[in-house]
Amino acid sequence: MKQKTFIFLALMLTTADLLFAQRARLCWSDGNNQDTTVTVWRGERITIEGRAYLDTIPSEPLVVRGRARRRISCETGFLGGVLTDGFKGCGKHPQDLPSYTVYDVLDTDSAWIPETADDGIKPLPARIFCSVDVPRNIASGRQYVEIRLIGKDTGHPYGYMGLYLNVLDRTLPPPHEYKFRSNFWQQPYSVSRWYGLEEWSQDHMDKLRPYMHRLARCGQKVVSAILFYEPWGDQSYDKFSPMVQTTLKKDSTWAYDYHIFDRWVRLMADCGIDQQIDCYSMIPWDMNFRYWDEAKGDYSYLKTTTSSAEYENLWTSFLHSFARHLREKGWFGKTRIAMDERQMPDMIRAYKVAQKAEPGIKMSLAGNYHSELSGILADYSVAYGQKFPADTLAARRSRGQYSTVYTCCTEPYPNIFTNSHPIEGTYIPLYAIANGFDGYLHWSWMNWADDPLHDSRFRLFSPGDTYVIYPDNHSSLRWERYIEGVQLAEKVQFMRDSKAPCLSDVEEALARFGDGDASDPADVRQKVEHIKQLLNK
After folding, report:
1. How many CB atoms lie within 10 A of CB 91?
2. What CATH number was assigned to the domain covering residues 2-171?
3. Rounded to two decimals, what is the model's pTM?
4. For the segment 167-199, what is each residue's pLDDT rounded down to a tens digit?
5. Phi, psi at residue 323, to the nearest 5°?
6. Domain boundaries, the chain
7. Can you list the residues of the chain whose pLDDT is less than 70?
């Protein structure tokens, strides 16, 4: 009798909650449906959007909460807006373009204080999101996630909507084992500046961890390490300080301190990013190398060229020491001396200097395609629209070399600017594998400007080009769409490896991404939805 009474009371409370919840209407963005169903694989992460409409304005701020069973991880909140404009290009950002707001910040912390529309009749709707990580060991079948709009102060429910997960009997590998190679360059000094922390203090290291865990979720393979001060000149809000202290001693010999480099590499490994270390750069943009001059008690600079004797002497000494340190740590084989958009003659000269100093040390480049470099670069990322010849690509793969593609400020479509359509982020990995690339590179993960949570514009480049993740570890809609694309690429690989019956249809759908035309969001969405349907059958 007591058990029946308890169940009856629970049902009464649930019914009362839902009756009370009719003060708001929540629906998913795929229509006016309060409930929706999404087909997923085990191990997949999805992010979907919704809207919340109120009949009257409540007397308290509102928050979004998700509830799920079976160890399903669920992040919910409001989509926050940032300023952007229509600039898509390189160089100085025009100051006279009209700005507008795009909803990009996945804000799990803030509350919604509803406001009325301009006509004063109805409250403006809120944009909400739900990100779900499906466990890799969950049973296949139907699972339920409930999203509620509740009062921040009282906990009273104002509205709810349901997300049904149709979990297939297929499992994605853990991100660390993704075959698709994501390479987003990190900027740890933005984090120390934003939070007012001493560089490489324990507080700085602790603050970096959640960001790098989030980066690892896309299958990030590469650590970005800085050998000499500011490899890229004056193109970022924060300078890239060296992770190796180079000192010219009073007796004219060189000494090197790897303490910060080691801490950084270990931190990244702890966060799941440990397959490659890209070290910048033997060819910085201004060919200026800063070092500590012990005799002067101050920094000095060596302004040089790749063909000078001073250049060879500097790098021969450095590489002897660096290679010895890497071998002691067990990191030599996965380390690359990395360059960015440097000319072919300089690359050849730097390669010869490096091989003479330390035979077998590996090198990487993000830049234009040159056949002369295709055989010697362990990791070669070419600009979007350029491709490796099929035989070259096959030869590089047989040698264990990686061949990827990158976008930068040059490409208006597709890209991951704040003024890009978010679906372009999904398109990029599919374009990459459609053209035989191993992955995708982007120069900036968290290179924040002065007010990144509110204004994505910077004095250079397209808005949002300098960062994809926001302070306080807020994800972005464009980042979540990129993860979706990476997961689709992994699903294609699964179909290839398992020789699935639908493989020919999948390959035909994938081929539609090969031309690289992503200028029409509706067309891109149609292509993405088509291949998703095939992969989720």
Report:
1. 9
2. 2.60.40.10
3. 0.94
4. 999 999 999 999 999 999 999 999 999 999 999
5. -60, -40
6. 2-171, 178-292+300-465
7. 1-22, 32, 117-122
